[in-house]
Amino acid sequence: MDLEPEELQFLTIPEILRESIAIPKRSPKTFYLITLTLIFPLSFAILAHSLFTHPLLAQLEDHPSADPNQTRHEWTLLMIFQFCYLIFLFAFSLLSTAAVVFTVASLYTSKPVTFSSTISAIPRVFKRLFITFLWVSLLMLLYNSVILIFLVIFVIAVDTQNVVLLFLSLVVIFVFFLVVHVYITALWHLASVVSVLEPIYGIAAMKKSYELLKGRARMAAVLVFGYLAICGVIGGIFGSVVVHGGDKYGVFTRIVVGGFFVGVLVIVNLVGLLVQSVFYYVCKSYHHQGIDKSVLHDHLGGYLGEYVPLKSSIQMENLDD
After folding, report:
1. Neighbours of 136 (CB within 10 A)
2. DSSP, res 309
C-alpha cells in the first residue's frame, strides 16, 4: 500500500482488490511459504471434507447395518471425523489470519519480515484471535438459535398450510442469512485484524470492529457476500464433479478438476485475507483514525519479544479514542 493514509478512505472495491493483490509482490517468498504451509491445507480440507464424509453418509443411509452396535460405531467414527475436521478448520483459519495480517502490517510499517519472523509471532497473535473467535462464536450461536426457531415455524406453517406464517418465516430466514450472517462475518473478519494490530481483543475488538464498520458496512457486505458466493460456486462445482460425479466423469477428470478448484480456492482465500487487512486501513482512514507507523512497528515487535517502549501503548490508546 503505497497510498497515503488519508487517501485510503477513497478506495473503491476494485481498487481495494488491486491493492490487495499487489501486496505479495513486496515479499513473495514469505507469502509463498504462508500459502503453502497454512492456506493450502485449509483450502484442501474445506473441499476434501465432503469427499471423505460422503461415502460414510451414503453407507449409513443406503445400507444401514442390521447390527445396532455396528451402526453406532459408524456414527461415532463420523462424529469423530467431523470434530477433528472442525478443529483443523478453525485452527488453520486463525493461523492463516494471524500470518497474513501480521505480514501485511509489517510491510505497511516497513518492518523487515520473513516467514520465520511471522511464524515466531503467531503463538502470541493466535491467543488473541482465539479469544475474539470465542466471542464471535457466542454471537453465531445466538444467530443460529434464531434461525432454528424460524425453521421450526416454517415446518409448522407447511404442515398447517398457514400462508401468512409461511411467508413470515421465509422472509425472516432470508433476511437473517443474507443480512445478519454477512454482517456478523464482516464483523468477525475486521475484529480479527483489530485483535492483531491493536492492544485489544475479545469483545473489545468486536466493539471496535462495529465502530469501524459504520459508514463502510455496505462495502464490507459486498466484499463478504462476494467471497461467500465464490466459495459457494467452487464448492458446488467440486461437489457435483468430484464428489458426486463418479458415474459421469472418469478418475483422471475428477482429479484434474479437484486439483484445479483446490488451487482456485487457495487463491481466493489468500486474496480474502489480504482484502480484510487492507479493508481495516480503509475503515481507519474513513473515520480519520490515523495510524502512527512507528507505534504499530513497536506493537508488532512485541509479538517477537522485542523491547517495546512504554509510550507505544499510550500512543496506541490515544489513536483509538
Report:
1. 22
2. -
